Amino acid sequence: MTTTALLLFCACSALCGNLALAQRSFSIDYQNNCFEKDGQPFQYISGSIHYSRIPRYYWQDRLMKMYMTGLNAIQVYVPWNFHEPVQGVHNFTGDRDLEHFLDLTNQTGLLVILRPGPYICAEWEMGGLPSWLLKKKNILLRSADTDYLQAVGAWFAVLLPKLKPWLYINGGNIITVQVENEYGSYFACDYNYMRHLRTLFRFFLGEDVVLFTTDGNTDKEMTCGTLQGLYATVDFGTDTNITEAFKRQRHFEPMGPLVNSEFYTGWLDHWGDKHAAVDAKAVSKVLGEMLTLGANVNMYMFEGGTNFGYWNGADHDKRFRSVVTSYDYDAPLSEAGDPTEKLLAIRDIIAQFRDIPAGPVPPATPKFAYGFVTLKKVGNVSEFLKIFSPSGPVKSKDPLTFEEMKQPYGYMLYRTTLPRNLSEPTPLISPLNGVHDRAYVSVNGVYQGFLERDTTLVINVTGNHGDTMDLLLENMGRVNFGSKINDYKGLLSSLNLGKDALTDWKIYSLNIDGAIAEGWPHLQSSKSGPTYRREPSVGPAFYTGTLQPNGLNWDTFLKLHEWTKGQVWINGVNLGRYWPARGPQQTLFVPGPLLSTTLPNTITVLELEQAPPQLRVLFMDRPHLNITANKL
Ligand SMILES: *[C@@H]1O[C@H](CO)[C@@H](O)[C@H](O)[C@H]1NC(C)=O
Ligand SMILES: *[C@@H]1O[C@H](CO)[C@@H](O)[C@H](O)[C@H]1NC(C)=O
Ligand SMILES: *[C@@H]1O[C@H](CO)[C@@H](O)[C@H](O)[C@H]1NC(C)=O
Ligand SMILES: *[C@@H]1O[C@H](CO)[C@@H](O)[C@H](O)[C@H]1NC(C)=O
Ligand SMILES: *[C@@H]1O[C@H](CO)[C@@H](O)[C@H](O)[C@H]1NC(C)=O
Ligand SMILES: *[C@@H]1O[C@H](CO)[C@@H](O)[C@H](O)[C@H]1NC(C)=O
Ligand SMILES: *[C@@H]1O[C@H](CO)[C@@H](O)[C@H](O)[C@H]1NC(C)=O
User: Fold this and answer.
1) Is pLDDT above 70 for 531?
2) Per the count of CB atoms within 10 A, which of 65, 310, 351, 371 is most buried?
3) For this structure, is 404 an active site residue?
4) How far is CA 97 from CA 107, 159, 205, 409, 481, in A?
C-alpha cells in the first residue's frame, strides 16, 4: 500500500540516478512532486528539537532517540537573541554552540532543516529577536525598517557564513533553509522585507540551496508569507483536513513536494491555562495519512525541552499570557527526553514507510527523588541592592523601561517616596496599564500587594509622607507572536497615588543572576553575609538551602509546593520561573548533570509574593504539569 502511494505522488523519473550519484545534491523535483537527494527521490520524516532548550550534555541523547524512532531529519530554529545578547557581541560557545549541535546531528545520521529566522516565534522570548532592537522607539520589526534590516544584515553576515559549509550540497547535512517564520500571519505583509531576506540568504548561502517558507493554512497567510523563489510549505495539526490543507499548498505550489513543516504533536501551556495535550492515536493516524500521500512531514515538537532562565515567550491576544517554563509540549520525547507512548505509536507508523534502525529506542534517563530540602530566609530584595546593583540607581523624573536601562531580562527595582500622608488605604493606580508585567509593591518594607498587566491595575497602599515605596518589576518574557511584539518591559508609564502622579524615581538594574552565579548568598554567609532566618515573609525575598550530595546526579523534578511565584536557581543556574499557585506547571525539570555528586548543591529561591509556613522544597522523580488553579 505504502509503496504504491509513494510512487503515485513521488515517482523517480527514468532519468534520475547514475549521473547525479557522484555528486551531492539536494533539490526540488517539480516534475515528480518530490525532493531529490543525490539524484534519488527523497521524503523526509523529521522532528523539531531546539538546542537552546536542552543542556548541551543531553543533545546527543535526544538526537539518538530521534534517530532510533526512524526519523531521517530534524528541524531546528536558531534564536538570534540567544547568540547576540548585546548588539555586536556574539556567543556560540557551550549551550550556544550551534556548530557542535550540527556536528552531533551529522554524526547521528540525521539531516537538518534549518530555520534561522531572523524571527522564529517558537514561544521563545520576543520570538527570537533581541530586545536591544527596541532601543529605537517605534521600530517596525519584521519589515523593511532600515534599522531593523541593518541589524538583520549584520547578524546574518556572522551567522550564515558559519552555516554555509554545513549545507548538504557543501558536504554537511543541512538540506533546506527556512526564510522568516509564518510571515503571512504578521500584519505588516511587507514584500520588500521578504525580498531583502531572500537576497541575503542567496548572497551568503549561494544559489543552489533549497529555501522555503512556512505559513498557517489559510489563503491570507499564504499570500503574505510566500515569495517567488522560496518554496511555499504549510503547517497544521491533527484537527485539520489534510486533503484541504495540501490543496491549499498546491494552490501556491502547483508542483513540487507536499510539505507540512509543523505537524503539531502537542501544544504549549500558558500560566493559568489548562494543560494542553494532543492524543497519541490522532497524531500517529494523521502522520500515517500524510506519509501515505508522499508528503514530507516535520513533527513540531518532537522534543520540546525547557524555557530555562528568562527564555519563555508570551502571547497577547485578549490579555498578556506568559508561556510556562516547561516546553514539554506533550511531545513524543518528554521535557526530560524520555520516550513516551506517543513516540512508540509514531515509530510503528514510520516503520510502515521506511526501514527504521534496528534496536530499541534508548531508555529514559534515570530519575531520582532526592526528597525534601529545608530552606532559610536570606532576606528581602531591597537589603541586597549593593550586591545586585553595585553602580547604584539611575535617577529620573519619570520611570525608565528595561530597554532604556539596557537590562534585557529579569527584575528591576523602582523606588520613590510617598508625597503625602495616607490617612486611609489609597489606590495605587496603573492608569495606562504600563506595568510590564508585574510589580510587587512595598512601603517602608511592608508588602502591599502586586499590580499586574491587563488584570490588576489598582491596589490600595498605606504609609506616610516620605516613606520609601519600592516596586520590584518582573519581566515575564516578551510577546513572541502577533502584532504586539514591540513588548517594552518595566514601568512604561507613571503610576498615580490617588490623584497624585508619582515622580522622581530611583531605578536599579538588578544583576541577580550574576551574583548567584558567583556564589551569592552561600559564599558570603560565613563572612559578613546575611544572617539567615527561619520565618517566611510576604513580599519579594530570597531563600536558600542545600541538597546534600548522595553520589548520584540523576535528573529530578523540583516541586515548590505551597510557594506562590518566583524564580529558582541550582548551583548558580537559573532553572526558570515557578508559579504553582496559578499552574498548570507544578514541577521544574532539573537536569542531573547540574548536580554535584560530591559537593553540597545550593538552591536559591526568589519568592515574589508569599513563602509557605514550612520553608522547604521537594525533589521528585516525576513531573507534574497539569494542575491549574481555578482562581486567577
Ligand atoms: C556564552 O554562552 C555560554 C552558554 O550559555 C555561557 O556559559 C558563556 O558564559 C557565554 N559567554 C559569554 C562570554 O557570555
Ligand atoms: C558529516 O558526516 C559525514 C559522515 O560521517 C562525514 O563524512 C562528513 O564529513 C560530515 N560533515 C561535516 C560537515 O562534518
Ligand atoms: C476532507 O475534505 C475533503 C474535501 O476536500 C472531503 O472529501 C473529505 O471527506 C474530508 N475529510 C474529512 C476526514 O473530513
Ligand atoms: C504625617 O504623619 C506623621 C506620622 O503620623 C505626622 O507626624 C505628620 O504630622 C503627618 N503630616 C501631615 C502633613 O499630616
Ligand atoms: C481601597 O480602600 C478603599 C477605602 O478603604 C475601599 O473602599 C476599596 O474597596 C479598596 N480598594 C481595593 C482595590 O482594595
Ligand atoms: C526588608 O528587610 C529589612 C531589614 O530586615 C526590613 O527593614 C524591611 O522591612 C524588609 N522589607 C520587606 C519588604 O520585607
Ligand atoms: C496529570 O498528569 C498525570 C501524569 O503526569 C496523570 O496521571 C493525571 O491523570 C493527570 N491529571 C489530570 C487532571 O489531567
Assistant:
1) no
2) 65
3) no
4) 16, 12, 20, 22, 26
